[in-house]
Specification:
Layout (H helix, E strand, L loop, with lengths): L9 H7 L12 E9 L4 H15 L11 E5 L4 E6 L3 E9 L16 H5 L4 E12 L5 H9 L6 E5 L4 E5 L8 E7 L4 H22 L1 H27 L4 H46 L2 E2 L6 H8 L1 H83 L1 H4 L4 H31 L1
Parallel strand pairs: 5-8
Antiparallel strand pairs: 1-4, 1-5, 2-3, 3-4, 6-7, 6-9, 7-8
Helix pairs in contact: 5-7, 6-7, 6-9, 7-9, 9-11
Amino acid sequence: MPPLEEHPLRHVLNAEVHARPPVPLQCPEAVTYLALLHDANSTRDKAEHIKLLAAQLGLSEPDTDSGHVSLDAGEFRLKWERHNEFSTYTFFRHADAVDVSDEHALLSVPTVWRNSIPGQLVVATHIAIRKAGPTSPEDAISASRSTGLPTVAAQIAGESGWVVTDFHIRDGYSRFLILNASLTPRQAGRTVQRLLEIETYRIMALLAFPVAKQVRELLSRAEGELACLMDDMGRTASPDDERAVLDRLTHLAAEVEQSVASTTFRFGAAAAYYQLVRQRIADLRETRLPGYPTIEEFMERRLTPAINTCATMARRQDDLSSRIARNSQLLRTRVDIELERQNQQLLAQMNHRVKLQLHLQKTVEGLSIVAITYYGSQLVHYLAKGAKEMLAPLTPEHITAIAIPVIAGLVHFGLRRTRSLLESHDT
C-alpha cells in the first residue's frame, strides 16, 4: 500500500507531550531556579544569551527554537525553558556532600553571564535534596523553625520523602529542603519540578492581585457614578437633559471597557496559573505532619483569598459593564422615542402646511382659469375683428361672448386632468 499522507505537524505535536521531562536527581543535589519575565525584546535576547553561555563553556551551539535547552557543563547542568510570559533557568549541582552554608548550584556558573540574564526576575529558589538518614525530618524542621518564620512541612509521594519550606525570601531566594527516604531519581526530579512550578505559578497568579486592587478603586467610583446617572435619568425633563446623561454614560462605559480590555488577560491568566498550582500540589500526594501545615493548607489560607479577590473583581467588572450597557440602551430608547415623537409632530406640521398649500393652490387655480380665459377671449376677439366680414351677421363681441365659456371649460378640464395625472404618479 502507498504510504499515508502525514499531517505536517504530526511529529511536532507528538514531541510536545514528551517535551520538558524532569531531570533525574541523585542525593545530595543542589538546585537553583530563576524565572524571569519577558519584555519587548528579551525573548530573543534570552535565546542568544543561552548560546553565549554554551560558547563560554566550549559546548556546541544549542537549538533554542524548540523553547527548551539542556546544557551539561560538568560542574553544573542547566535546563532552560521558554514559556509564554517568562523563561526559567534551572541549575543542578551534584556533590558527595553539600554543606549547609553552600546549598545552591550557582557556584560554578559564570557570574557575569548570570548577572546579565535579560528580563525581570520574579522567582529565585534554592532547593537542597538530602538523604533522610544523615538529616532527620525533626532536625530539618527544627533548623527551619530557628528562623522564626512559620514552617510548612509534609511527607510526599506516599511517604517516600519530606518537604520543608517557609515560602519566605531570604538573601533574594526562597528555599525548599527535600529529604529523600526512598524516592527514585526520577521521582526526585518530578518532585523538584512540581515544587518549582508551584513557586512559579503562585507568583504568576499573584501578578493579578495588584491589578485587582486598582480595578476595585475604579469599580467603586464607577458604580457610584452609575447610580447617580440613573437618578439623573429619572429626573430628566427634556431631551437635552437625556442627551447630556447619555453622553456622561457613554464616557463611563468607555472607561470601564478600557479597564476590561486591559485586565481580562491578567485575570484569566491568574485563574489558569492557580489551577496549575492546585494540580501540582495534588501531584505531590502530601501527608500531614502533626503541628505543621501542608503546602496545600498554606496555599488555601494565603493564596486562595487573593485569587478569589481577583475573580470577584473580574466578575464585578463584567457585571458593571453589562449594567452600563443595559442602562445605555434604556436611555437611548428614551431618546429615540422622544425623537420619534418630535418627528411625528414635525410630520403633522408638514401635513398641515401641505393642506394649506393645497387650498392655496386650488384658489390659485381658480384665478388661473379666470386669467387664462381672459387672455384667451382677447385673442378670439382680435381674430374675430380681423374676420368680421366673413363672420357677418355675427359681430366680434358675439364671437368673444360665445368663446368665453368654451375657453373657461377647456382650461378647467385641462388643469383637472393634469392634477389627476400627477396624483396617480405619486401613488
